[in-house]
Amino acid sequence: MAKVIVDGKEIEIGDDERLNGIQVARRAGVEIPHYCWHPGLSVVASCRMCLVETGTRNAETGEISMLPKLVPACQTPARDGTVFVTQSEKVQHARAFVEEELLIRHPIDCPICDKAGECYLQDYYFEYGQPSRRADLRPFTSRRRPVGQTVTLFVDRCVMCSRCVRFTREISGTSELMIVNRGNQEEIDVMPGFPLANKLSGNVVDLCPVGALGDADFLYHQRVWFLKRHEGVCTRCATGCSISIEENQNRVYRLKPRENPHVNQWWMCDEGRYGYHHVHDPSRLRGASRRGDDGYEPIDWHDVPEDIERRVERSDSVACVVSPHLTVEEAYLLCKWIRQSKPQASLFLGPVPVMGEDETFPGGFTIRAEKCPNRRGVEEVLRHFTSRVSTFDEALEALDASTFDLVWVTGGYLGDWIDEPTAARFGTASELIVQDMFDSPLWQRASLRLPGAAFAEREGCYVNADRRLQRAAWAVRPPQGAWPEGHVYWRLLEQPGMYRAQVVLDEMAEQIPCFAPAAGGVPPLGVVLDVAQPVQR
Fold it and tell me: Is the distance from CB of 177 to CB of 147 less than 8 angstroms?
């Protein structure tokens, strides 16, 4: 194995690894400051913030010879015998000069900048900058213009790292952003009539190391130091991007991608990024209710389990439609209780929404046509309880034959997921239990209505299109009058205490072989399951 020396510490790297100075320094526990470098983009070495001393060690004599000039660590490969010095006085002076040059031309408007609190320029100034200012503040005008519907450019704040330009050329492949003018007149801009409008455009805000690119959806809504971050999974398609849900005082303010090389790399699509507003939609369903002689009457949530048990007990034939928006733990608990109560109950997979075709971008990121997060996970749960996975269409055919006395339908879909003619086919069942977030023709026909939770309000695991199981934590509480599905099923099974998804997952790992790798907890990047082939539709 190759050996690299970083600040006197010897680091071993694989013979096939291709690392630069920044990456190998991280292995040694040293963070080299940088603006323009990003592991997912090409290397341009333009900001010069990562300058270090470098040299080589003679393998036979052990003698170290250093280069006379500083070199950018991002552009310097780490080979056997390479030596990096990252903290010398020469390096520290170079970093201070770079910071000083940037700040001479940068507006000091941190109190009104959205990036304050997570800005590289702020952090690096305190850690690497000059001890005192040696030039007057430059008067500036905060030139601001939209470069697309979701992104606002603050021209004066840009440090010309070109991350955003490289992203649109290398990852999205759309090339909307470019650098115009030359010298100290350089700016980021778009061609007239060609705004930043690709499906991954929000990622340029994450990439920007300063406050030059602002997210129009988040701009001036919240200070970042007030936000609490929770690990989650995007539920808008079967890619299942690893994300961070950032909230304050029980309100979600933004979603950002988490690095996961197996799923989404460093990115997420705009559909997922801005697809959280339904969580706080005022039209969310609230309050459990049941149909009475004079219409619907409210029912206390603590009485719901007894009410469900009574309805199922008096029904000879029972069916359950399990939504692909449920977590695997919720699907397992629901099927377990149904089969304990009615061993011959029929279990069906809920509708699997598909829009268009999979879309893969030049950088490798894929937006899936399948617009649900957990079809594969729910199929494995159903396969455990039944000999085969029955589809939603089969459920409708059975309803047409008046097969069932009671049908329990779980939803969680966004938009008009079921139309009036399809909902009318459930009229053959005398009892209809519906769990959902929004009103629908099926909700209007339900004999028992149970408002459900959104993705940010539930904990549990999802299995994406590539068979990777990932864990999501709950970030905010559901609106008053709505219960997460897992809590309802936990009560039905008379489990002690509060609902705990990991306890359920551990049980699943014992009962369902493909979930065995998840026993004891799921690592941050998830685990790959040995699941069966998907049901053909």
Answer: yes
- 77 pLDDT band, cuts 50/70/90, is very high
Number of folded domains in the chain? 3
In a domain? residue 453: yes
Helix (H) or strand (E) holding 466: none
Asked if residue 355 lies in contact with residue 417, where contact means CB atoms within 8 angstroms, the answer is no
Question: Which amino acid is residue 500, in one-letter code?
Answer: R
Q: Is 292 helix (H, G, I), strand (E, B) or coil?
A: strand
Q: For 284, how many CA atoms within 13 A lie in the half-sphere containing its CB?
A: 21
Taking CA atoms, 186 is separated from 46, 50, 180, in Å, by 13, 22, 6
* Whole-number Å distance between alpha carbons of 416 and 203: 29
Sign of CA dihedral 170, 174, 180, 185: negative
Q: Which two tokens stand for residue 473?
A: 């934590």
In 240-365, at which residue ranges do the beta strands (DSSP E only) sit? 242-248, 251-257, 289-292, 295-298, 318-322, 346-349, 359-360
289: three-class secondary structure by DSSP: strand
Only one residue has tokens 């990852």, namely 171
Same domain, 338 and 441: yes
94-126 residue pLDDT tens: 999 999 999 888 888 889 999 999 999 999 999
Q: Where are the alpha helices (DSSP H) in 345-448?
A: 375-385, 392-400, 420-424, 441-445
- Name residues whose C-beta falls within 8 Å of residue 26's C-beta, 6 or more positions apart in sequence: none
* Distance of alpha carbon 197 from alpha carbon 303, whole angstroms: 50
Beta strands 468-472; 431-436: pairing state? unpaired
Distance CA 293, CA 297 (A): 9
Q: In whole angstroms, what is the distance from residue 163 CA to residue 207 CA?
A: 6
pTM score over 0.90: yes
Is residue 328 within 8 A of residue 463, CB to CB? The reply is yes
Cα–Cα distance, 508 to 506 (Å, whole number):
5
Domain boundary residue, one of 279, 309, 331: 279
Give 465's contacts (C-beta < 8 A, 6+ positions apart).
238, 239, 240, 368, 370, 376
pLDDT for 533: 59
Contact between 442 and 426 under an 8 Å Cβ cutoff? The reply is yes
Calculate the alpha carbon distances from 338 to 95, 325, 428, 493 in Å. Answer: 64, 18, 20, 10
CB of 287 closer than 8 Å to CB of 376: no
Residues 372 and 396 in one domain: yes
Which range, of 99-113, 191-205, 229-243, 456-470, averages the lowest pLDDT?
99-113
Kindly state the average pLDDT of the residues 498-502: 95
- Domain match, 505 and 475 both: yes
| 239 lies in the same domain as 367 | no
Residue 161 carries which DSSP code? -
Domain that holds residue 392: 289-528
